[in-house]
Amino acid sequence: MYNFSYQKVSSIADAVEAMQKAEDGKFVAGGQTMLPTMKHRLASPSDIIDLGGIDELSGINVDGDTVTIGAMTNHAAVAASSDVQSAIPALAKLAGNIGDPAVRNRGTIGGSIANNDPAADYPAAVIALGATVNTNKRQIAGDEFFTGMFETALEEDEVITSVSFSKADAAAYMKFENPASRYAIVGVFVVKSGDGVKVGVTGATPCAHRGMRLEEALNGNFSADAVDGVEIPVEKMNADIHASAEYRAHLVKVMTKRAVEACS
Ligand SMILES: Cc1cc2nc3c(=O)[nH]c(=O)nc-3n(C[C@H](O)[C@H](O)[C@H](O)COP(=O)(O)OP(=O)(O)OC[C@H]3O[C@@H](n4cnc5c(N)ncnc54)[C@H](O)[C@@H]3O)c2cc1C
Fold first, then answer.
1. Which fold has domain 5-54?
2. Positions of CATH 3.30.43.10 in the chain
3. How far is the CA of 79 from the centre of ligand 1 (A)?
4. Could you tell me the distance, in angstroms and rounded to a whole number, from the CA of residue 224 to the centre of ligand 1?
5. Confidence (pLDDT) at 2
6. What CATH topology corresponds to 58-263?
7. 231 CA distance to ligand 1 centroid (A)?
8. Closest protein CA for atom 18 of ligand 1
9. pLDDT score, position 179
10. pLDDT per residue over 63-117, tens digit each?
């Protein structure tokens, strides 16, 4: 690791001020990605601004049909929340299947979506549930938040404060996971609501995205059989030591079918 200055702040205003004064600052949440990235010398920020002391960034609130999860809320808390379990059970289940207990107790929803790892689970839910990402500056639609591999719509000094999800009539998330890390080789989140069917796909391509072809088929016929005729473009798939592009394209359909069956 390189030398850096560590700052613990207790308000969003102080976090933003510290970031604006820093030469090359970075916010840190649970450090689950940030610290390994620094240890591997893939990042060398001048200042680390720790969001862990900002109380208002943690917690879960239900207001009517909307569930709002503070950015610093860790995955274990989301998984264990009776509010999330009853409002959007698929989201609680997703959080409970992230990594291992250590990761779930340190990793946060804000850190996960800000990092936008192509294999992360939450982005599929944010897209499919039409979530809103709330920041200190604005509200960003889930569909517009993830802009590319490890890239988001966030500005340098923008802090995610919370993520708001709407309840759905039915929702399910299925992932084919890497057996070591549990990151998604492919994960598919299917939501059925009054607005129709929405599908969020992660792991398959460099950035999580809506499965528009799958949505079209499922809006016509909400059944696993409807997925059979959908063509998944192999050339857009990720390929690495874990799975070829062809295998990932196949997994997108299999995970979608399983999610549709779990919704029914
Ligand atoms: C061994 C291992 C296994 C894992 N398995 C899975 C898995 O199965 N599925 C999965 O989805 N994920 C998995 N993860 C990722 C993990 O769940 C974390 O969500 C992720 O690493 C981000 O960590 P963090 O929340 O501690 O954020 P940090 O590492 O602290 O920060 C990550 C990035 O987000 C930025 N950031 C953090 N909070 C905010 C905020 N509020 N506003 C703006 N920017 C912010 C930081 O500046 C940094 O760039 C795994 C991680 C590890 C180490």
1. 3.30.43
2. 5-54
3. 16
4. 32
5. 81
6. 3.30.465
7. 32
8. 107
9. 94
10. 999 999 999 999 999 999 999 999 999 999 999 999 999 999 999 999 999 999 9
Mean pLDDT of 225-238: 96
Ligand 1 atom with the shortest distance to the CA of 72: 41
Which tokens is 97 given? 């299947």
pLDDT, one tens digit per residue, over 37-61 is 999 999 999 999 999 999 999 999 9
Tell me the C-alpha distance between 214 and 112, whole Å: 25
Instruction: Measure the CA–CA gap between 253 and 228, rounded to whole angstroms.
Output: 7
